[in-house]
Amino acid sequence: MLYVPMFKTRAEEMRVVRALNQCFGKDIIPLIEVLDEYYETRYKMDQNTGEFIKAQVGKQKKRVKIDPTAEDIKTLEEINKLTDRKDIFIDYFRYTTKKYGTNIDIKKVGLSRKLNESFALYKNKILGLIEYKNVIPVISIKDGYSIQKAELIKLLREVKEGSSRVAIRLTDDFIEPLGEVLQKELDKNDFVMLDIEEQLPKSKFIEYEEIEELELRAQIILLNSPRLVKPKNGDYPENAYTALIDNSAKDYVEEYGFAGYGDYCGLKDVLPRIGGSNGLGAALALIYDYEENAFWAYTNKNIEDGMSGYKKLIPIILNDREKFDPNGTCSGYDKIVSLDGSGNWSTWHNICARRYLWQVYENSN
How far apart are CA 238 and CA 176, in angstroms? Predict the structure, then answer.
């Protein structure tokens, strides 16, 4: 069964990709949702003095950035370094405020914002993936970003002229409208990614049957986001398996004969946000257990403790290592052991994703 871990191009998630790229291979192919470009920041300089040109920004003078050129942008090169040039799905990510809200840090989703406004740019980015033979281009179709059949067929054919593989990622309301296109344009090397987002896997049996009846040559991947956005850290149990995260998607993969499944490795499907928690909030650590297909939650309910609450949780988590990591090989636990202090929210996002991916990796070999 193929597993597709999904990562957004954010610091904590890309650190997981770099740390665990040895996990990637024929049974685990990551899907990277690209939010922004990678490039070296350059600043304007006075050619006569050799000093940086500065502009008044509020009460300070700051260096003036130079807009990156096409040659400056190294997004795919950098991602390939992190993944050691192994097979990867690339999804140039577009979003709607209807789903992700308005409190989005647009400085961290610069490319996505441009893609939201220009299909021509989106198409150019997709076609630009062809030159990377290890990259499987993902054409994403969802609420707010539908594509006319004729335009989709044209784009698919252009991609397949230069690439042996392509993936179409679509939400369930596009199965019927695009069924004929999926049947005719995709072959056994291609992928259809049915993204049910936060919906419960058990509630989508009609859609599973609908896509099964198409008898596609393409491989079907069931994507989902089992850790819901709304529950807060303090809603999780103090020291027990949690019912707040439904990991049953892989059970339906087996039942309907799909090729695999994918999710966010225990993280939420959210975009970078403006502001923060001011250090307050319940400290939460999630440890995935592959055999139970469930997360064990460790929670410090005292929101006043904030991140310092992890100091109370770490001894308890490590005391359970023999239960959850009897061979002492888990990358997530190794990260906890090597912590200098108790870490921050991003640290524990990293640990959660490491643990999850490592569990899948160890149990797929």
Answer: 44
Beta bridge partners of 7: 32
CA distance 321 to 191: 38
Q: Which residues contact 294 (CB under 8 A, 6 or more apart)?
A: 241, 242, 245, 247, 288
Residues with pLDDT less than 70, the chain: 277
pLDDT at 205: 96
Structure tokens at 238: 């103090």
Amino acid at the residue 98: K
- Of 114, 115, 106, 164, which Cα lies nearest the Cα of 142? 115
Reduced to 3 states (helix: H, G, I; strand: E, B; else coil), residue 224 is coil
Cβ proximity of 115 and 121 under 8 Å: yes
Tokens read off for 355 = 């643990």
Distance CA 318, CA 274 (A): 33
Q: Is the dihedral of CA 300, 306, 312, 316 positive or negative?
A: positive
Token pair of 18, please? 């770099």
Q: Write out pLDDT tens, residues 47-104.
A: 888 888 888 888 888 888 888 888 888 999 999 999 999 999 999 999 999 999 999 9
Crossing angle of helices 119-128 and 110-117, rounded to 10°: 120
Tell the residue number behind the tokens 């690439």, with chain if given: 163
User: What confidence score (pLDDT) does residue 48 get?
Assistant: 84
| C-alpha span between 313 and 348 (Å, rounded) | 12
The answer to whether 330 and 360 are in contact (CB under 8 A) is: no
Collect all residues with Cβ–Cβ distance below 8 Å to 108 and sequence separation of at least 6.
10, 35, 36, 271, 272
Residues 6+ apart with CB under 8 A from 154: none
Q: Nearest CA to 191 among 131, 113, 135?
A: 135
